[in-house]
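Exercise 7b. Backbone tokens:
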């Protein structure tokens, strides 16, 4: 079913969401086109592509996909703001950002394969992403880049949230990555930065792996990229920006994980004579 919304407000979505909530029925919409502001606060939806030509807000609702389908795919040019709701994919992707901008400040994203993938810009300031694949199977809470979409400039800006995976928490295929906060929990590598040249920066966050053999962070793009963050094991000093070091003086235990190493010191990206500056502004 393809539905085009060309009238103001979200009357249609309000009606079907209320019906879904009251009767427990799942609404199946293959593609939802919107030309005016959209708001979804409740309802049960099957796999859906949202082509937003106007800003959209999702504060609730249940989006569910079975098999290899994605629970919610964003294909429009406008921003979609997600502050609540559940997004569940079986062997697919809970949230697939193929175009536009996604601003995620809340919500629960679960999958056996991939939580959130972005080929454009995704800003994450909250929410939880949990991926529990079979042992030995690739599973990613966050994935930056999309090999099927050429010519895009993927961006992840992550300031908060909890991300856990039975394999890798975050895998960077391409694009720019900025992490200033959030909790990254992995059975193997927490964040794979890749080796393709791009902007990669870590100024904060908590990173852990339960693996004894795997590194928390991997990829040459982390070289001289880290000026903050706490880790449950040592990371390569090659990753640290000038003026920063690893400290083990004050271990911190959060939800049963002890973060033994913390990046300390201050990085000064600019200096004029003897005066150092923490930004270029």
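Sequence design result:
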């Amino acid at each position: 079913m393809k539905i085009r919304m060309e009238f103001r407000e979200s009357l249609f979505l309000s009606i079907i969401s209320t019906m879904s909530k009251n009767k427990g029925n799942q609404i199946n919409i293959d593609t939802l086109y919107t030309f005016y502001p959209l708001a979804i606060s409740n309802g049960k939806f099957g796999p859906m592509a949202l082509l937003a030509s106007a800003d959209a807000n999702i504060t609730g609702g249940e989006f569910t996909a079975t098999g290899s389908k994605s629970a919610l795919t964003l294909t429009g040019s406008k921003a979609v703001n997600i502050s609540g709701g559940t997004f569940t994919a079986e062997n697919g992707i809970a949230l697939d950002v193929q175009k536009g901008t996604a601003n995620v400040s809340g919500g629960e994203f679960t999958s056996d394969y991939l939580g959130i993938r972005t080929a454009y810009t995704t800003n994450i300031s909250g929410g939880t992403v949990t991926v529990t694949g079979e042992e030995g199977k690739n599973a990613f809470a966050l994935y930056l880049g999309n090999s099927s979409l050429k010519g895009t400039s993927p961006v992840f800006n992550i300031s908060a949230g909890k991300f856990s995976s039975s394999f890798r928490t975050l895998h960077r295929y391409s694009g720019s990555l900025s992490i200033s906060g959030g909790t990254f929990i992995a059975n193997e590598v927490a964040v794979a930065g890749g080796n393709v040249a791009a902007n990669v920066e870590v100024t904060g966050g908590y990173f852990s792996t339960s693996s004894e053999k795997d590194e928390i962070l991997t990829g040459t793009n982390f070289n001289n990229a880290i000026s903050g963050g706490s880790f449950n094991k040592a990371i390569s000093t090659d990753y640290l920006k000038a003026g920063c070091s690893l400290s083990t003086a004050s271990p911190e235990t959060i939800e049963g994980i002890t973060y033994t190493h913390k990046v300390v010191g201050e990085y000064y990206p600019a200096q004029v004579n003897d005066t150092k500056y923490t930004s270029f502004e």
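Instructor comment: Helices lie at 11-23. The two ends are 51 Å apart (CA to CA).
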